[in-house]
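User: I'm putting together a teaching handout on how multi-component assemblies are represented. Below are the sequence lines for each component of a complex, exactly as they appear in our records. Could you produce the 3D structure of the whole assembly as structure tokens, so the students can see both representations side by side? Please keep the chain order the same as the input.
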Amino acid sequence: MGRYFDDIAVGEVHEFGRYEMTEAEIIDFARKFDPQSFHIDPVAARKGPFGGVIASGWHTCAASMSMLVGNVLDEHSLGSPGVDELRWLQPVRPGDVLRSRAKVIEARASKSRPDRGIVKSAFEVLNQKNEVVMTMTAMTIIRRRP
Amino acid sequence: MGRYFDDIAVGEVHEFGRYEMTEAEIIDFARKFDPQSFHIDPVAARKGPFGGVIASGWHTCAASMSMLVGNVLDEHSLGSPGVDELRWLQPVRPGDVLRSRAKVIEARASKSRPDRGIVKSAFEVLNQKNEVVMTMTAMTIIRRRP
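Assistant: Of course. Below is the structure of the complete assembly, with chains in the same order as your input.
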């Protein structure tokens, strides 16, 4: 079923998802992709710049993608050309439970490819204390109704 | 040892890293974080928008971070406030071998925190055919020489 580009309206706000960042997953992700001591070594991290282990910013991005795919993106998604103004505003720590909020700020039909449009969203990731830990302007290509 | 903020000059260019994107890792990452059919299902992907499985853009970001930490970032890194103009320009496919290129475009001492500075870099990820598959403007906080 899913929603086509034509079903999406500027101004729509969606709040969705739940992603618990466990210490084990934070360390596992960072060992593979971002092995800085404040991501992978709880002992060293305690004396480091964040006073403890924090998640790699790319891990928070990946977690936010997983919330998107489970809740908002469907089979009409055709991928993304990119993201603007990605900001890691607050550390994400072991045990934090994240959720997402997205507001559609622009929806533009493609001129060159009439089967699709581009949707731009102001995207926020919040933690269980309602702090905004990450923001970005995300672009998604969505199929038009045939 | 490592390099302090004070050792970094605007205009510096570094080319570094080697990251092979295997099909197994592409599917594994995407099953966890970005389970869209064009990332996880080789059969469906063949008929999909990219003609085959492609890596999640966040996987390419994670791979680029792993190249950075192994080659450019050291113990004087204090994390990142964010990234601007992240663009996924070309699909990354199974078997692609990525490398990175970074040019320092700005280096600014922090006004509020005299122990650190912010370095802005124009960052590119290239594949084995020398196609630029991803670009971003990356910001990194680096410790100043004490």
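A couple of points students might notice: Chain A touches chain B through 34 residues (CB under 8 Å). The two ends of chain A are 13 Å apart (CA to CA).
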